[in-house]
Amino acid sequence: MKIVITGSSGFIGSHLKDSLKEHDIIEWDIKLGKDIRNFTLDKNVDFIIHLAGLTDVRESIQIPDVYWEKNVEYSKKIFDICKNIPMLYASTSCVKEWWLSPYGTTKKVLEELAHDGHVGLRFSNVYGDGQRDTMLFSRMINNSLEFVSENHIRDFIHVDDVIDAIKLFLYAKDFEFDRIYDVGSGMGLHVNNLVEYYGFNVEKRVGESCEMLDNTADITKLTRLGWSPKRDIHKYLEGKLNGRTKLENNTEGLLS
To answer: How far apart are the first and last CA of the chain?
Structure first.
């Protein structure tokens, strides 16, 4: 199968590319000198997986024009060029309250611009090896966590579960799906309680107004297709934190 992956050097993209080595992969990534601004389509492409784009909610407040250009204008060009080819593209749980940030707004617009046969995947908080250093789990693992939101509930999903979800669509015999699917664990965790559970005593702050309070995914539609999340967040963190002391309480207290 001939597959185009944009953002192939990014966190999700690199994991996806490594899992599809048996296929003919065409990469588009600015780190490879292939900016999606200049996107062109090779002949006989079977599938497009569009992951490239800017993803920082707080940063989007500072440079909304850049987010609009890269996330909307460049992606619209890709959508139009690939109008008649099956495509998955990265959306976000932020779309559920898109008005809170320019980032959420750009992804909401993308969902409106997508053509028939293009499926948006609303990722929640994806974690795993290779995640950005600024992500919560990276800061916990690197012992650089300075503060935590006291009022946020987040749905954490392992990158390998995300890859499994992508492959479900990729290998479907008939590409006839709904336009949008949530991709998460379906389980919301109180971020403050999670951090405390692993023994971190850091400053607590109220979440910023540009951020959703709760981004728990509704994975009902996706599980009906035969997918389910299989990786355990605590096995991951316990392995990475090397037995860091946990509070003696029930993990049920972490759930929303």
So the answer is: 42
pTM for the whole structure: 0.94
For 96, other C-beta atoms within 10 Å of its C-beta total 17
SS3 121: strand
Residue 5 tokens read as 């992956």
Strands, E, within 86-179: which ranges?
Answer: 87-92, 118-123, 125-127, 147-149, 153-154, 156-158
Buried b (16+ CB within 10 A) or exposed e, 28-60: bbeeeebebeebeeeeebebbbbbbbbbebebb
Angle formed by the axes of helices 74-81 and 102-113, nearest 10°: 20
Contacts of 222 (CB under 8 A, 6+ apart): 165, 168, 181, 182, 183
Closest to 101 in 3D by CA, of 151, 152, 60: 60
| 193 contact partners, CB below 8 Å, separation of at least 6 | 253, 254
Query: 96 by DSSP, 3-state: which?
Result: helix
Q: How does 170-192 read in b/e, with b if 16+ C-beta sit within 10 Å? A: beeeeeebeeebbbbbbbbbbbb
Instruction: For residue 72, give the DSSP letter.
Output: I
Is 85 in a helix, a strand, or coil?
coil
In this predicted model, what pLDDT tens digit does every residue of 78-122 receive, in sequence order? 999 999 999 999 999 999 999 999 999 999 999 999 999 999 999
Model confidence pLDDT, tens digit, residues 118-127: 999 999 999 9
